[in-house]
Design goal:
The structure is a homodimer of 464-residue chains.
Chain A lengths: L3 H11 L3 E5 L8 H11 L5 E5 L5 E2 L2 E2 L14 E4 L6 H9 L5 E4 L10 H14 L2 E3 L5 E4 L4 E4 L6 E8 L2 H13 L4 E6 L8 H9 L6 E5 L6 H12 L4 E4 L5 H11 L6 H11 L2 E3 L2 H13 L8 E5 L2 H12 L10 H10 L10 E2 L6 H10 L8 E6 L6 H11 L3 E6 L3 H13 L4 E2 L2 H28 L1
Parallel strand pairs in A: 1-2, 1-5, 5-6, 6-7, 10-11, 10-12, 12-13, 13-14, 15-16, 15-17, 17-18, 18-19
Antiparallel strand pairs in A: 3-4, 8-9, 8-11
Helix pairs in contact in A: 1-6, 3-4, 5-10, 6-7, 7-9, 10-16, 11-16, 13-14
């Protein structure tokens, strides 16, 4: 199913050892400066060739008047930040050095009414066999190669890839992943996607070992049927999460005027995602949260979740969301209840949610988890820390060694202690969220992914 | 409608000039220590009387063996942190100094199966005319009097009051208000609310000049009809926002086992809120966001909202939420469109959302807002800053001087600049939210409050 030619071209981009920046600038306010600066500060190990006829050196690198003037035979990729009308020339220049892949950050094409200019770019690239991302985009980041040709600067390595038709959604996603100390494998700003599109990119990331989950913000897809088929072939290996706005009439009109996407019918997109097993996100938080939980957790054995909480209220809020999203807040059997009763202080409320109450320390969570170790019918454990509880990560580490269930955490109302503990929990690979509702929605996405996998398994068995 | 006796009693608590702490402790891990420490660090100006027969001094204040032993005639209020079985004695002791109001933090009553002990407390308090909050609660904070008898420490003064049956929800709310530099007027942890309840408290805050909005987390109400009637009498003066979990069967069961509230039917509560004009929140974020926008904005003249954004994608996401929540993303008239076209760069997308595109600086927002100044049909302006845009607060300040429309902001994908700008925007009184979806949901709550006021106005006119 995967097309090898696009994977090869994108390989030259993501794993580039030599990058030309057409439109690099000494002026710190120009995009051509910011991109080059981020490439350097991101720690790129390969060679950088700034192209600008009016400079001899930019940010410490010798500058060239054209790509052709660079004294080597092959350049892996080129980042283009020149005004729209010069982009065709740059592509022709790039062809002299056998460039396989370009990133056209420059705007001023279809989105500004210049359809013809964009067609010229497409045709020129095709003529020379150059594949490209953009135009009118915010660049490309691929952390395994310390390649940050976007703004803002993204350095933290992680396993989530985000493909976005909105630079802001991508930047917000990257910012949250940085705050969470989780990082990204890649951020691709799609722009007008007049060549490389979401289908090409999910094919690339499906075989990229540094990426465990693919998140997408899309305002439309170029080929709905192909999107569905390619998606379906990938989700068995890696989860795909998609946020596509435009579910209302005015939202859909706004989407069309933004990226001039043929946005198509929202309901059809929705149905295609379901068919393919692509998980839908409804908000930017969900896009991030779903990627986060799916990148950190294994697929659970079922949808049954035990909530262990120091905050009764938070447990109830999580239960409501679970009930409405196909996560089963199961009843504990009487022998487990008895064991819990015996090992916990008498004022704890034994049930699901299991309320350890406000005086709970982290050790009490550990004691509780130990007692449900053998309860096979519990698939997921949600730990809600609803107070400033220290040492949560220390005890969760012990839990992880002793049980095989998936552990997810919520940390809320924890003052100063909370910030440190969340980072430590993430270091352990425990996805931790700031509210009971966001946490349970994320768990629901994990459960949904499991049901997609199960359905596909049944389909495959039927086909055998 | 307002009962003056309860307002008077609560006045002694919130405006206390002398507070006894029964169960104060030298041990820094004890609640009786933390509460006293927070009272001191919160800047309380009145007299503090720690009560503990085993200490002579706690945290620099002389300690007494009993309240009776304090050498003055009247103590305004007492905070009780002793074990449950001693609470009745403390109330009798408090009566010797004409205490009007107590806060019983101690747990171990109805929630732990000790119904009789709780009844004894209620009867004793009634006998001596002492009103009380709790038992089994996390205390009371009232910042206008620098009174923080809760944990965590809450110092930032603001105009939002939060009444909560969950300590964690209250603490999270307080933490967010602190991070936002907005602060609170009050946090009341209701606990078992066996005396003072939500109805008493909304009556108090309805006449409290330091409070502009009342937020509540409730797992049940003691008297549904009274709650509705009192609520209805208050919302014309101040907005009330309520989060009540238990909309699902299992959520409702969990609520009953948490605070042993007779939670009643969720649908009935929902209907009562609609009838009274109380705004419902569905999540803890909504509870906070709705209080925030309603504390900072005036009631808009209508539901028509113009979105001005640097991020096309964020504008679409906000439009979808508006469409589904009765906020009108109106079409601009052609003369306004023409003026905008002339004053903005040609690549901006003139419409609603008005897309200033990714290269926009803060001044461009100001230019745009100036051009819609006379468009009377625009009631609310949503500014989405979807990039690291500096000086937003500077230009919003200028806007505020020139237009009378309500301004609400979203700041997303703004890296380091974002954090500083959000605080500056809050200083200006502009509510600023972190995602397009949260922002538009908050605007919808503002619009809903307006429609409640309008409906009440019509009702009053009919009654005349």
């Amino acid at each position: 199913m995967i097309q090898n030619d696009i994977v090869d071209s994108l390989h030259y981009l993501f794993h580039a050892q030599s990058i030309a920046i057409a439109g690099a600038s000494e002026n710190p306010n120009k995009t051509g400066h910011i991109i080059m600066k981020n490439l350097i500060e991101g720690g790129f190990k390969g060679d950088i060739y700034p192209i600008n006829p009016r400079s001899s050196e930019i940010l410490g690198w010798p500058c060239f008047s054209s790509i052709e003037a660079i004294p080597i035979d092959k350049i892996d990729s080129v980042i283009i930040v020149v005004p729209a009308k010069f982009v065709v020339d740059i592509l022709e220049d790039a062809a002299t050095k056998h460039v396989s892949c370009a990133v056209i950050i420059s705007g001023g094409f279809r989105e500004a009414g210049n359809e013809e200019l964009e067609k010229d770019v497409v045709n020129t690239a095709k003529k020379y066999g150059i594949r490209f991302i953009g135009p009118n985009c915010q660049g490309v980041t691929y952390t395994p190669n310390s390649l940050c040709a976007t703004w803002p600067l993204m350095k933290s390595r992680g396993s989530m890839a985000i493909i976005s038709q909105s630079g802001t959604v991508g930047a917000a996603f990257a910012g949250w992943s940085e705050d969470d100390n989780l990082g990204l494998s890649s951020f691709i700003s799609l722009g007008n996607k007049s060549d490389i599109d979401e289908i090409d990119l999910i094919q690339y990331f499906s075989q990229d070992n540094s990426t465990s989950v693919i998140g997408m913000y899309l305002e439309g897809v170029n080929d709905g049927r192909k999107f569905m088929n390619v998606g379906a072939s990938i989700v068995n290996k890696k989860p795909i999460i998609a946020l596509r706005p435009g579910r209302t009439k005015k939202g859909s009109i706004a989407a069309q005027s933004h990226t001039k996407s043929i946005s198509g019918d929202y309901k059809i997109f929705d149905a295609a995602c379901k068919q393919a097993g692509i998980i839908r996100a409804d908000t930017v938080y969900e896009l991030y949260d779903f990627c986060k939980i799916l990148s950190l957790c294994k697929t659970p054995a079922g949808n049954r979740c035990l909530i262990i909480t120091s905050s009764g209220g938070s447990g109830i809020l999580a239960t409501d969301v679970a009930e409405q999203n196909n996560v089963d807040i199961l009843s504990l059997d009487s022998s487990t209840k008895n064991i819990l009763q015996q090992s916990l202080p008498p004022h704890c409320i034994i049930g699901n949610p299991l309320d350890l109450t406000g005086d709970s320390n982290a050790e009490r969570y550990y004691e509780a988890v130990k007692r449900v170790r053998t309860a096979d019918y519990v698939n997921i454990i949600l730990l809600i820390f609803g107070d400033p509880i220290p040492e949560t990560a220390h005890y969760v580490k012990k839990m992880k060694k002793e049980i095989s269930k998936e552990i997810v955490a919520c940390y809320i109302g924890g003052g100063d202690i909370q910030g440190r503990e969340i980072l430590s929990l993430h270091e352990l690979g425990i996805p931790t969220f700031p509210t009971p509702e966001r946490t349970m929605k994320a768990i629901a996405a994990l459960v949904q992914y499991r049901s997609f996998l199960q359905r596909n398994l049944i389909k495959m068995e039927e086909q055998d």
